[in-house]
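Q: What changes when zinc ion is included in the input?
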Amino acid sequence: MRAAILLTPGVIEVRDIPRPRPRRGELLVHVHTALTCGTDLKAFRRGHPVIPMPGPFGHEFSGFVTEVGKGVRRFREGDAIMAVHSAPCRSCQYCKRKLYNHCDHIMETKILGAFAEEILLPAHIVSQNVFPKPSHLSFSEAAMLEPLACVVHGLEMLGTKRDGYALIIGAGPIGLLHLLLLKKRGFSVAVMDTNRARLAIAKNLGADRTITAEDGQLLRTLSPRKEILRRTKTDRIGMFDCVFECTGSRDVWEESVTYVRKGGTVILFGGCPSGTSVTYDAGRLHYDEITLRGVFHFRPEDVKKAYDLLCGSKVGVLPLVSGCFPLSRIQHVFELLSKGKGIKYAIIP
Ligand SMILES: [Zn+2]
Ligand SMILES: [Zn+2]
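A: The predicted holo structure follows.
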């Protein structure tokens, strides 16, 4: 079967690899649609600690079951499915505490290789995180299950809060998924980015306000507290109830606390390169009681919630797909993304 192999940063080769066969509890799936993701792009640009090179990559997908391993009862050959690429072990110290996204084995037992004609789903994923795809959902929408589960998990940190004023920094795929879910919850949402094309998409998806990063630069040059006081008299910027960092850059991690109101929450979603250190104004954390919250990955309950949202057509995710390409054009697709063109692309193997 044909599969895309990421050889070194910047170089992808589509080659023939042996077709896997499902063992007990496993499913072999023909990939109908695989989506590109920010993590794939990071791997393409500079390498990524959880995407070994050279190796297969791609982890957002939907397709048809082509072969069923012994003991699998929920699925049959020909079933249309949607899935995520990991599942917890259910027996480690973290799983016993129900902290499933922190499972000791979740990263080493995840699967990569959705940019290929077929992908083998191991038993622990089949039993927890594979779902039938309803016919009213397109394969591209179904392939959004994984990123949507990540965002659903991040929003859990807000508890039951159903309205307020939110700032999303970074209008990439993850920032825009935040926008869709926050609007659905009744939040007013501002989106900040350097890329005006992306801000235009955010506006179309319902952003109440878009802010170019140059505006953000202005905010940063003044003392945050003074700036917040000044701005709150004339403008609601600087008093966001919650701020979502969706860029994964150190400067933005640090900057994000300047935008949140006293007692507000900053959700740090975008991962920085490992070893990165950040510095925060202690006064903002202490006197202003700001909560800083990192979020990572998702639990099976987040996947189920994301599945229900997609099946209920509660979030219009299709505008995030900027185009469709065959597997043979995957190098071109990642070059487009590297230039900041497009949000996500569908690869049709
Ligand atoms: Zn992803
Ligand atoms: Zn575990």
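Observations recorded in class: The first strand starts at residue 2 and ends at 8.
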